[in-house]
Amino acid sequence: xxxxxxxxxxxxxxxxxxxxxxxxxxxxxxxxxxxxxxxxxxxxxxxxxxxxxxxxxxxxxxxxxxxxxxxxxxxxxxxxxxxxxxxxxxxxxxxxxxxxxxxxxxxxxxxxxxxxxxxxxxxxx
Length: 125
Description:
The protein is an alpha+beta fold. The protein has 2 domains: about 5-35, no CATH class; about 45-115, no CATH class. The chain has helices at about 10-15, 25-35; strands at about 45, 60-65, 70-75, 80-90, 95-105, 110-115.
């Protein structure tokens, strides 16, 4: 069992962890937070050579021809072909596509996750 770190409890709590977790879990959470914070809009594009999105997950892609479109790696083609999504929507907590066009013309150099929709504040009567 990992050592209890009560002096670090406030820091653990920031990441939703108990101070009974090993320090390596806390460091991993800090590193992940820093990696996400370092992604300002200019850095938000992820090189496809570094990382690929999950299959069937709509993302923004940028091709070598400077075309930017919402697309996804198509699981029906084992992920080697991308589909440009012509109709997309956010429902049940995730992005989904109405219509897609699988083509090897959509070979991206970079991608980025789609943004979360805005959260409207509920007005209390």
